[in-house]
Amino acid sequence: MFEQLQDLPPDGLLALIKLYRDDARPEKIDLGVGVYRDSDGGTPVFRGVKKAEHRLHETQDSKSYLGPEGDLGFVAALRPYIFGQGDAFGDRLRGVQTPGGTGAVRLACETLAKAGATKVLLGTPSWPNHAPIIQATGMEPVTFTHADIATETLDFDALLTAMKAAEAGDVVLLHGCCHNPTGIDYDLNQWAQIADLVAERGLFPLIDLAYQGLGAGFEEDAEGLRKVLAAAPESMLAYSCDKNFGLYRERVGALYAISKTDDQAATLFSHLLSNARANWSMPPDHGAATVRVILTDDEFRREWDAEVAEMRARLNRMRAALAQHGTIGTVDLAAVGEQNGLFSTLNLNKDQVMALRKSHGIYMAASGRINVAGLNERNIPHFVEALRSIA
Ligand code: LMR
Predict the structure, then answer these.
(1) Any bridge partners for residue 143, and if so which?
(2) What's the CA gap between 49 and 295, in Å, rounded?
(3) Is 191 a catalytic residue?
(4) Is the beta carbon of 127 within 6 A of some atom in ligand 1?
(5) Is 208 a catalytic residue?
């Protein structure tokens, strides 16, 4: 059987973790995989998470199965952050816990494919795992340009054109905030136009929200996507707690789905459970239970909120520090100052990316994507000098 298989290259992004670890140069900089780093380059467990884990340890009296829906207390506790306090969806909105945001995207795509969807509009560049997940569930990604990296500008017309050319029932995948990999988001006016077009064309919005709180703030980061959810009769939203709770390896996510009626929502929920069961049976508990403990305790919640605010402020400081260097060769660092979240994609070719790695110990995705959190006051001069040397 296995002699039929041929070697596959390792995932380019995840391979960087090991390459960086094995590099002995003290001046090396990790701008690869999307984990937040503090100014010392660490990714410590949040203080609020430690406290919540402690409480969980003290109070959890069973680790028996919860079911394919996972921890519904966690799902309910997140809801107001995403959809707003007292949202208007009532029982039309249902959610399940998933293994990370990836599990949520996977469950969304699989359920949509089984319901008859065949095409997903996907702005490129996108998170490199989006297209493989769409294809793995038997749908076709229909790509359009999200942003032009050479000019660091959003190609909003490309999205509008793609939406106008799509057929009713086609899915449009939208990054809720802090676009991965460009950091280039829609403004509120553009979100309103997307909402209008979604309604007019009968498109199905699938929103991927993996960085809420790392852009402008929790409310601000959800404001645009809420316009789309309000305009569409049906939608799905895949959520990740990896970054904004620092729970990466715990795999904490949720999929929310809004249906036209309460009855349809109940039917859809039964399909989400059945598809989850066939994939992973039940999601891992610990991370989601920790998030539930944080969000349902005022003191823990305040502490966590303050930690996310610190992360956001640091990211914005790093962006501002880079922006001061203006343009270096083909790279517009001033634009990085205007972008949001963990990532920006620099206008570098593969040779330049490799030269930065080989000659300067700077690790970034082959696409030129940088994780801004890998930068700090001490290593920015080395980074900028290295860019100058390969420009
Ligand atoms: C990233 O884009 O670096 C993260 O979302 C990690 C991943 O799973 O790719």
Answers:
(1) 122
(2) 11
(3) no
(4) yes
(5) yes
Q: Give the C-alpha separation, 166 to 56, whole Å.
A: 48
Specify whether the CB–CB gap between 300 and 293 falls below 8 A: yes
Q: If you search the block for the tokens 């996972």, which residue do you land on?
A: 70
Contact 103, 251 (CB under 8 A): yes
- For residue 355, CA distances in Å to 52, 109, 123, 248, 371 come to 44, 38, 28, 30, 18
3-class DSSP state for residue 223? helix
Largest CA distance in the chain: 62
Q: Where in the chain is the domain with CATH 3.40.640.10?
A: 65-296
What tokens appear for 222 in the block? Answer: 């959800």
Which CATH number is 10-45+312-390 given?
A: 3.90.1150.10
What is the rounded distance in angstroms from the CA atom of residue 69 to the CA atom of residue 109? Answer: 17
Q: Reply yes or no on whether 71 is catalytic.
A: no
- The answer, yes or no, to whether any atom of ligand 1 lies below 6 A from the CB of 13, is yes
User: What does the buried/exposed string (b/e) look like for 126-150 if buried means 16 or more CB atoms within 10 Å of the residue's CB?
Assistant: bbbbbbebbeebebebbbbbbbebe
Question: Could you say which of 30, 71, 185, 208 is catalytic?
Answer: 208
In the chain, residues under CATH classification 3.90.1150.10 are: 10-45+312-390
Cα 118 → chain centroid: 23
* Answer CATH for 65-296 from 3.30.750.24, 3.40.50.700, 1.10.10.10, 3.40.640.10: 3.40.640.10
How confident is the prediction along the chain (391 residues), in pLDDT tens digits per residue?
Answer: 999 999 998 888 889 999 999 999 999 999 999 999 999 999 999 999 999 999 999 999 999 999 999 999 999 999 999 999 999 999 999 999 999 999 999 999 999 999 999 999 999 999 999 999 999 999 999 999 999 999 999 999 999 999 999 999 999 999 999 999 999 999 999 999 999 999 999 999 999 999 999 999 999 999 999 999 999 999 999 999 999 999 999 999 999 999 999 999 999 999 999 999 999 999 999 999 999 999 999 999 999 999 999 999 999 999 999 999 999 999 999 999 999 999 999 999 999 999 999 999 999 999 999 999 999 999 999 999 999 999 8
14 CA to centre of ligand 1 in angstroms: 8
What's the CA gap between 53 and 72, in Å, rounded? Answer: 18
